[in-house]
Design goal:
292 residues, alpha/beta, nine-stranded mixed sheet, two-stranded antiparallel sheet, 23% helix
Length: 292
């Protein structure tokens, strides 16, 4: 029996203000009364801006423990979400054009990156995107490839930097390879210690996806990707965090943005505004927008 079940109307209404604007791939969109809260006004403004923006709508989502960890150890897959929030994740996936992870997650986790939400058809599946600058990952034989072959997901797109090497055979199972040349890092990226090793800026990745017809992206990991983007409020539209009622303990993989200073003094690295909470089973789900 599948662990993924339909959300209640109340749960859908809770998530709706933080979903990408525009025409839904669903035909079960919940009609909720219009409210005059800042959340609704912000969502309306985002919808108006999205059509003119060179960037897709970006949702940053992950599950963490009470000590802000997403895994017991590097490369160790750790289950945090309960069945209710797992259903929420699959519901969110059907409302985005693409779902993105870094190669550091794709290699050890071998994720499926599809939606098993009840009634989800192939057209409702998000496009899997793996950021793999150095072409480290071989998609053939992966869960992504198997799901695409069975018609349960779409063929993945891979993002690389150009390399003067012989390409992999054209009969591989990659839907598209997007080659992005290095460009100057944004001010937010320059504050990240790991930016010295990064040769594709996040703004370039997102602009290229938008140019390829991707209007909304759900970014799920891993820790480095999440921590980096938490410091880039200009790129992220919504943040949805599942907090599991457990502590993983010291030595785990922590999500935490790089430290930030103002006039030489430490200040909060990132902050959410327009926040709402909802209980999904034993988990608490926090939705908000990063403060600019």
């Amino acid at each position: 029996m599948s662990e993924v079940s339909e959300l209640s109307d109340l749960e859908k209404a809770f998530l709706q203000p933080y979903l990408p604007p525009g025409i839904s791939k669903h035909d079960d969109t919940v009609q909720v009364p219009l409210r005059t809260t800042p959340i609704d006004r912000s969502h309306t403004e985002i919808a108006a801006q999205a059509e003119e923006s060179s960037l897709p709508f970006v949702t940053l989502t992950y599950a963490c423990s009470l000590d802000s960890m997403i895994s017991l150890a590097p490369g160790l897959r750790t289950t945090l979400s309960g069945p209710e929030t797992k259903s929420m994740t699959h519901y969110l996936r059907t409302h985005h054009d693409a779902i993105l992870v870094g190669v550091g997650t794709a290699i050890p986790d071998d994720p499926g990156l599809n939606s098993r939400y009840p009634g989800a058809t192939l057209i409702m599946q998000p496009r899997p995107v793996v950021v793999d600058p150095e072409m480290r990952w071989n998609v053939n034989g992966s869960k992504l490839a198997q799901l695409a072959q069975r018609g349960q997901g779409k063929a993945p797109w891979l993002i690389h930097t150009p390399r003067k090497v012989e390409m992999e055979p054209s009969h591989d199972l990659v839907g598209k390879r997007i080659f992005i040349t290095a460009e100057a890092a944004t001010p937010s990226e320059q504050t990240q210690e790991l930016s010295k090793r990064r040769n594709i800026s996040w703004s370039a990745i997102l602009k290229n996806l938008k140019a390829e017809g991707i209007e909304s992206v759900m970014i799920e990991g891993g820790a480095t990707v999440i921590s980096t983007l938490l410091s880039m409020p200009e790129l992220v539209n919504s943040v949805i965090v599942t907090v599991a009622p457990t502590w993983l303990g010291q030595g785990g993989v922590t999500v935490s943005p790089a430290p930030k200073t103002d006039a030489g003094e430490r200040v909060n690295a990132a902050r959410l505004q327009e926040t709402t909470w909802h209980q999904f089973g034993a988990d608490a789900v926090l939705c908000g927008r990063l403060q600019l």
